[in-house]
Design goal:
With 269 residues, the chain is an alpha+beta fold. The protein contains seven helices and ten strands. The chain has one domain: Jelly Rolls, CATH 2.60.120.
């Protein structure tokens, strides 16, 4: 079975018609070296703090058991570099070309993947009903702060699968198996960003045969205006309020942290 391994040589500072058409057709875009080096350095330092001080573990616990843990004292966007990253103006400019004006911020995750971390099987992260057509777009920005090299876990994506109206786990039984037609990203320079249509099936394929190095990873998602989106964190209102209080959106994007984008939180079954 042949696998297409993608090597991206240059940065894409703006989207042209060809790139927008590729996103529509394939469901992803790769932006090599998209983030400035000073921002990458600051966010990496914050990722270490987020992981090593237990802030990440407390954030997860607050989602799994909100009645016990309440709203975390510190969220990802409270960290200055993370807040700057999620509202990085060149990123928002690109996302606006994909989602149109008035889009909202959905959520953010931050982690430092250990070299021996197991892979993550085929899944998608689209938050609308699995049976609804993909009329409204959601985008995940996957930021690889240190890039990816061939000795690290790579990102596999299945072009075109974002058009399938199926649940997130429809391919979970396949694990991280190589699939016909997949694109495998295993070499990206530091500061690279991959934009995924959130309904695109993707997987993290581990390489246990290599000791590798930690993979610094932040993902943030954004949703098109015009429909109510399910919230994935029980404290979503507090999250948006903090972002507004911190002034992360700036005067030109008052919609970015608006509550009108969301339905009430419902705990997953």
């Amino acid at each position: 079975m042949s696998v297409q391994t993608l090597h991206i040589p240059t940065r894409l500072p703006e989207l042209d018609e060809t790139q927008r058409a590729q996103f529509e057709r394939a469901g992803f875009l790769v932006l090599p070296e998209f983030l400035p080096g000073d921002l990458v350095t600051r966010v990496k330092q914050e990722v270490d703090t987020w992981v090593d001080t237990g802030l990440r573990a407390r954030s997860i616990a607050a989602v799994l058991d909100p009645a016990t843990h309440g709203v975390p004292d510190v969220l990802e966007l409270d960290l200055p570099g993370h807040g700057e990253l999620l509202a990085y103006e060149p990123l928002l400019d690109v996302i606006e070309q994909l989602l149109g004006p008035g889009f909202g911020f959905h959520h953010m995750h931050s982690d430092r993947h250990a070299p021996d971390l197991p892979g993550k099987g085929w899944h998608h992260d689209y938050e609308q009903s699995s049976t609804s057509p993909r009329v409204h777009t959601m985008v995940h920005a996957l930021h690889y702060l240190d890039g990816i090299d061939p000795d690290m876990a790579g990102l596999a994506v299945l072009p075109g699968s974002h058009r399938e109206a199926v649940g997130k786990t429809a391919r979970a039984h396949l694990g991280t198996d190589v699939l016909p037609g997949e694109v495998y990203l295993e070499e990206l320079p530091p500061g690279s960003t991959v934009l995924l249509h959130s309904a695109l099936f993707h997987a993290r394929r581990a390489k246990p045969q290599f000791p590798g190095r930690p993979r610094y990873f932040v993902d943030a998602s954004y949703c098109e205006a015009g429909v109510l989106w399910p919230a994935v964190k029980p404290y979503w209102r507090e999250m948006l309020q903090r972002a507004r209080r911190l002034g992360l959106a700036g005067p030109d994007r008052p919609h970015l942290f608006a509550e009108r984008h969301f339905a009430e939180y419902t705990r997953p079954e």
